[in-house]
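Deliverable D5.2: sample structural annotation.
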Amino acid sequence: MITADHGMANISLDRVVFVDDYLNAQQLQTVTWTPVLSFYPTEGLSAEEAVTALNQSPHLRCAKKEDRPPDQHLSNHPRLPPVICDADEGWSISGREWFGDYQDLYQGGAHGYDPVVESMHGVILGRGPRLSGGRAVGPTRAVDVYNLLAALLQITPATNSGDPAVAEEWLGGATGGVTAKTGRARASAAPASVAHGAAGEAPRGRRRRVVAPRAPGPLMLR
């Protein structure tokens, strides 16, 4: 099995959201900057005020930690700061002073955007006696890879967030009875996927297809 952890999106100097345009950046104790900005508000700035101010940017989506979608599993995490913002695909987040000194960081490519965005999709390739060829294979999220590998090795996986049906599809419905208890969940990091490379997301929208050529060839993106 060969897989990737994420895709890449083009970024440029003319697609940068400057925090300073919406509030005093000195009031933020930042944990991460771009493309996911997370921080602790300080000096009298409330989380609600920070979210309202930053959401004035058309290229940011900010929310308090507890208001994030439940399938992201971020709401009650003790190590996450109270405010988290996502940049639109291809956009970066910076402060003007930092940007002036480190413009090279805002050119080329980046990852970490919404996993459903096609540029974040990875690939997963497989070849072996248990992988039947000549057919299309559906979406494989990051959290599904574990069950697939367990099925290939014929070991019983621990309880996890993956979908056992994905492994069954890869193996033509023959997992040898090796299944796991699951709690369906979304992975927040970008994974690989056969049908759309979806980075840990449930499939939606137009997807690329992957066709497995006749054995013994590997699965190939189309």
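Annotation notes: DSSP finds four helices and 13 strands in the chain. The chain has two domains: 9-113, 115-222.
The annotation will be released with the project's public dataset once the embargo ends.
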